[in-house]
Write a structure and sequence with these properties.
The radius of gyration is 19 Å and the shape is elongated. The N terminus is likely disordered. It contains 8 helices and 12 strands. Strands 1, 2, 3, 4, 6, 8, 11 and 12 form an 8-stranded mixed β-sheet that branches. The protein has a two-stranded parallel ribbon with strand order 5-7. It is of the alpha/beta class. Helix 2 packs across helix 7 and helix 7 runs antiparallel to helix 8. The longest helix is centred in the last third of the chain and has 23 residues. InterPro entries: RraA/RraA-like, RraA/RraA-like_sf. It comes from Shinella sumterensis.
Amino acid sequence: MAAPATHAHSADHLALAFDAFQPATVSDAMFSLGLKDSALDPTVRLVSGRRILGRARTVGRTPITANAGQAELAKDYAFAIQQVIDGCKPGTVMVIATQGIASHANWGGNMAHRASHLGAVGLVTDGALRDVEEMEGYGLTVFAQGTSVRAGQHRFATTVANGPVICGGVYVRPDDIILGDRDGVLVIPPEHAGDIARKSAELLGIEKEMQAFMDSGASLYDAVQKYKVR
């Protein structure tokens, strides 16, 4: 099925190649091409907005322990999350990896305010966030495992600043293409984007033909046999 327009930056032609596709179609295309599964765990759900398409800017957060805080884990990164957000630009998708821990929020209103002002289109986190109504006011599309009124300050340490992270069980690098809707979130490697977009267009065309075939009176069984899809 074709997808609605998104807020991807108009100059990012590589990302915009996926503007017409739903993540499910792109996931099928990646599977057809033999590429590794890059769909985030379904526990990362849509919280606000409808659809997201842009480039990843990443932060890794680690829960502190009784004997290890920010100073022990990464003392030079005490304000790294703020600096990463300050580096947002039009089309940025902030990706905050928390090892899947959602007890405290690692994203909130002030972060959203700054990121939105700089042109970011949304957030993906395998942790929790808060101030959801503010996100909606800024027009940000947000995916998270959940929400929490409790702040992550003094509960998490920043250990990765715009470097590779594992979010929702998926390896995410800065500038990877992030595509998400109510079905879930997909990470698209830019180095394969051209092939993936072409295969996605092919699969979307087959789907439209298959549905037209059924509209003409064919059964689902006959359509599956004809087009070799499920």
